[in-house]
Amino acid sequence: MMKQNTPVTLKFLAEKLKMSVSTVSKALNNYPTINEYTKKRVQEMAKDLRFTPNKSAINLKERKSRIIGVILPNLLDHYFTRTIYGLEQFATANGYNIIISQSQDDLEKEIQSANMLLRSRVDGLIIAISKHTQDYAHVDQFENIGTPVVYYARNPSFNLNCHKVLGNTFQGCYEATQFLIDRGHRKIAYLGGPKMISFTHDRFNGYINALRDNDIPFSSDFVAYTDFDQENTISAIQNLFADSENVPTALVAFKEPILFDAIKYLRSIKHPNFDKVECIGFGNNAFITYLDAPPIASIEENPESVGENAIKLLLQLINDQIEIQDYQKVMVDCKLVVH
Amino acid sequence: MMKQNTPVTLKFLAEKLKMSVSTVSKALNNYPTINEYTKKRVQEMAKDLRFTPNKSAINLKERKSRIIGVILPNLLDHYFTRTIYGLEQFATANGYNIIISQSQDDLEKEIQSANMLLRSRVDGLIIAISKHTQDYAHVDQFENIGTPVVYYARNPSFNLNCHKVLGNTFQGCYEATQFLIDRGHRKIAYLGGPKMISFTHDRFNGYINALRDNDIPFSSDFVAYTDFDQENTISAIQNLFADSENVPTALVAFKEPILFDAIKYLRSIKHPNFDKVECIGFGNNAFITYLDAPPIASIEENPESVGENAIKLLLQLINDQIEIQDYQKVMVDCKLVVH
DNA sequence: TTGTACGCGTTATCAT
DNA sequence: ATGATAACGCGTACAA
What we know:
2 copies of one chain form a homodimer. Chain A is an alpha/beta fold. The longest helix of chain A is centred in the N-terminal third of the chain and has 16 residues, at 78-93. Chain A has a 6-stranded parallel β-sheet, with helices on both faces. A 6-stranded mixed β-sheet of chain A has the order 7-6-8-9-10-12, with helices on both faces. Chain A folds into 3 domains: 10-53, no CATH class; 66-166 and 303-331, Rossmann fold (3-Layer(aba) Sandwich); 169-300, Rossmann fold. The model of chain A has no long low-confidence stretch (mean pLDDT 95). Chain A has 12 helices and 12 strands. The interface between A and B is large, with 62 and 62 residues. The structure holds a DNA duplex.
């Protein structure tokens, strides 16, 4: 194939057909005022020459882009890619494209991404903020020019006036704890994640509320925190199981990879009652079926649904079905999956 | 914040400053002919009013979009998301955005995605074709208007005249087989994937070439095929291990989830020499460390590198550093990771 | 039924 | 040193 030198535009078609540009435009858009025969001629020529309307031109004219910007920490975390899975399909089904930009949990990159998307005049922004985002000026820019923003997946602190779609991590942890209580456990440990992540505390609240609602005394000996580093997880677990007089019989963990590290460690040291310790973590990794000592259940966070709810809300805002000032908070429930 | 009624454009700035639009434009773009003082005034006003150039207008003028289109089967497959991880970063670093569109391995959706991206006048297309793509007309459209296309991750059959970036799955399988041979195995089984996927055969070729180069006789009893369905994997494994006189001592599998199913099954039936069977699969899943009976090694496919090579090649084509007709084939080597 | 004219926001060329 | 004008491709109000 040869590289086509003259792009096929309305003007080009008009010259070929010896008509005016506007007639061609109207014919292609099926204006009722255009003669049927003319329409046919135009449409055939357009098809033959493979005319494709230029979106940049239409965007400029209509002052919108039919593009949704998505900023998220990264695409290696399966949680985020699962949100995008649902989100992209819903967007496409509604005639929108999505531009994805990774912040790598770096505030500078997040700001740059936001600026690029602002130039692109995206019709809306969906953002999972970086760990270090405290100031929201780069996001507020969008709302300042009337572009709606939905925060999702990660909860922005100190920023109440915004639309949010979040996993109901409180409810998930509550149900997991309740499940363990129902199975007879009273010594249930909670292994939290990084303290700077709000989910760590939301989950703790779910845990502690379930205990309280069942009149089970809370002991701080049964609470420890870690990050995603294996060594820290191990020392956290060591603390939780330190007192041989008072050993937990069940464990709720912040995230499955952390839980797997914990389980692996407990097995490796041949913890005496290990086979009786029942564990639950957030994630529901498909891989669990291959484990010899699997958790008894998983907390499925439904990330696809989080993504879908985010774009649904955003499209409602774009279409003025919801007042932009009428700030929404959507919580997507978790589901306990017993293995 | 109030929704801004008048968008901040060059014209708007010009009126505020009582200058012409072209002066404002030049001032913002640091034209040498503009008075320093004027520049300062304009730039300050632009900053105050948060002027952001409209990309649609620039696109229209410059006849390019600085957007790369990416079409892939889906974002749940970790292989593809890992390609995007590398690709997006490289694109962003070079001033390009990416629009991702999932085909769900559905040809119709792939065509629709292609058409949308064509309207968007993406500067280039990177595509991992669907399983059912035999006809390439929807992709050829891009090259017809001079937009370069790079096929990646999946090999398009019957389409030699194209740019490709693929994992060197032959080499990966050859090395895995060689590794097992070096460990003394002579009865090595190959568990292939769906026969309609070309990688299944490329990997088989790697396997059989390694055997041949080591003068190990090939036996068709040691070759079986499956898809991603667990039951089919089990019956394939049953076939491979059917003859108790002639049981494989090692196994190379098409993909790790398949391999895990195979291992799980062999353990469940208490295959007599199971602990001596050494297995290798494609993937290098991070969770392998939690398995009790892990594969002895994994074939790491380096998907990030596949994505990065795809966009590198595409940018070279966009920048005319490579002739569009000078079709490239880039193979990204696999790496054997011993556990 | 068709054509003319204008504007979307920006940049580049040519005048002043 | 600054301004007027045209052009990118498209849609539409208005004129013919």
